[in-house]
Every structure is written in C-alpha cells, then in structure tokens.
Amino acid sequence: MAETEPAAGGEGDERLRAEIAAKLKGGLETEAWPRAGSSEMVNEIVGRLRSEAQDDLVAKLVVAGVTDHPIEADDLDQPCETCMYYLVHRRFCELPELMIPVEPTWSCRLWRI
C-alpha cells in the first residue's frame, strides 16, 4: 500500500502521482458516476472515504471516482485544475479525505467550483 499523505510536494508526490496514473491507466474502475451534485451525496461519499478508504489508496481512488481524464457533467468540464480543492503549484488535491497528488486534467466526483 502506498503512502497517501506524503511530505509537502517534491519526490514523494511525483512517485505517488505516477503510481496513481499507472493504476488508472491499467484499468482501475472507479465510481465516477453519479457525480456529487448535492450536499447529501457529498456527505455520503465523504463518509465512505472516512470509513472504507482511510489508509487505502485504491479504495480512495475508487470511492472518490478519480479518473485520468476530465469528466463533463451538467454541461461543465470538471478537471481537477478547476476544483476548489486543487493546489496548482503542487498539483495536489487537498480535500481532507483524499490528500493525493493529481494531474490537472484528472477528475473526481467530489469536484467543486
């Protein structure tokens, strides 16, 4: 199992980002749908992340619906780079239940403006 909260930036993020990319490219099926369009759905997904996926990288990716490409929902592209949880200079998702390095063009179902 990979370390899911590496030290801020640097080599640890790069290694974990590459590991995540390989899993996604390798066919890992994640729960990209339905998108978390309501507070209830957000709470449900966050609750699952807390209970089912705390220290399990693959479970986090699956439950959060992480994809290696942007998703369009409600006529709106939803790439990580436009999400409120995305740290641009670090290429990192700071949603407390995820805390993973990501690529700008990836997406997850917890995307928020």
From TrEMBL:
Domain of life: Bacteria
Protein name: Uncharacterized protein
